[in-house]
Amino acid sequence: MRRAISVIVLNEHGVLSRISGLFAGRGYNIDSLTVAPVPDSNFSRLSIITSGDEKVLEQIVKQLHKLIPTYKVIENSKFIEKEMALVKIPLSENYAGLDAILKGYNGSVANTNENHIIVMVTDDTSRVDNFLMAIKKFNPVDIVRGGSVLMDF
């Protein structure tokens, strides 16, 4: 079962290590993890995507609540979830149809140089998956995916 968890913590040293240790200690992998400071505060937001047994994930969430630097744990909520991907394509490729694919997936050209063009897409995780399948016809030489970011509403 896929699970999205948003954790607000005090922005201090060692917090990320303790949180990732909760998962590792129970044998669970974090599929995606992004961390960023909350503007105008002493807090950071961790967006965690994981999957696994419901009972173990409940234990992890309970332990997250008990960590001293944890301010708030948001789970079982409706989240807006977005992910970004960067794709490097050689300039020697035929770009017919690239603009249509980028428009269809909220994408754009991020940068270019004499050898490559780098395109960027930001969308729902499943749509980023679909974009990456569609972009394969342009023979990308490198793909970087960012982790999911979450905001509850």
From TrEMBL:
Associated pathway: Amino-acid biosynthesis; L-isoleucine biosynthesis; L-isoleucine from 2-oxobutanoate: step 1/4; Amino-acid biosynthesis; L-valine biosynthesis; L-valine from pyruvate: step 1/4
Record has Iron as a keyword: no
GO CC annotation terms, alphabetical: cytosol
Reactions catalysed: 2 pyruvate + H(+) = (2S)-2-acetolactate + CO2
Record has Transferase as a keyword: yes
One GO MF term: acetolactate synthase activity
Record's function text: Catalyzes the conversion of 2 pyruvate molecules into acetolactate in the first common step of the biosynthetic pathway of the branched-amino acids such as leucine, isoleucine, and valine.
Protein name: Acetolactate synthase small subunit
Originating species: Campylobacter pinnipediorum subsp. caledonicus
